Structures are given as structure tokens and as C-alpha cells.
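Weekly modeling sync, notes
Attendees: S.R. (lead), two postdocs, one rotation student

Agenda item 3: backlog of single-chain predictions. S.R. asked that every request posted to the team notebook include the full sequence so nobody has to chase files. The rotation student volunteered to paste the first one in as an example of the format we agreed on. Action items at the bottom.

Example entry:
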Amino acid sequence: MTEASTESHTNERVFLHDICNALAVVQGSLHIVIFKGKKVPPAITFEQAIERLQKGLEAVEKLNTLVSARRDYVVKEAESTK
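Predicted structure, as returned to the notebook:
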């Protein structure tokens, strides 16, 4: 494996790790709001629900940033090989 190939694999692992972390935050935040909110009486206050949803939104925004940066990188690489 070449040095460039090793670096590429490392970058890919970091990218996937960051994506997985953000997805876990979104899933966990939504899970808490939904399941605690379904209880009678609700086991989460309105303010707590908003806080959890805000964390989920921030994670979605991070995902958008990661994917946009990755798309730009892939397009740049494709153009450099033409």
C-alpha cells in the first residue's frame, strides 16, 4: 500500500467516524424526545425536549458540512485526474 493510499484510507475512516458520531447524536436526541414525550405524564419537559432537538439539529448541520466538504473533495479529485 502506498503512502497516498494509506492517507486516503485514514481520511476515509475519519470521515466515516465523524458521520457515524453525528448520526448517533441525531438518533439519540430524537429517541429521547419521542419516548420520554410519549409517557403519561411526559418524562421530559418542553425545555428539555427543545434542548435535545437543538442538539439533533446541530448534528444534522455538522453532517451537511461534512458531506458538502466531501463532495467538494471528490469533485476536485475527479477534475485533477482528467
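Discussion: group reviewed the output briefly. The chain has one domain: 3-80.
Action items: rotation student to repeat for the remaining queue; S.R. to check formatting next week.
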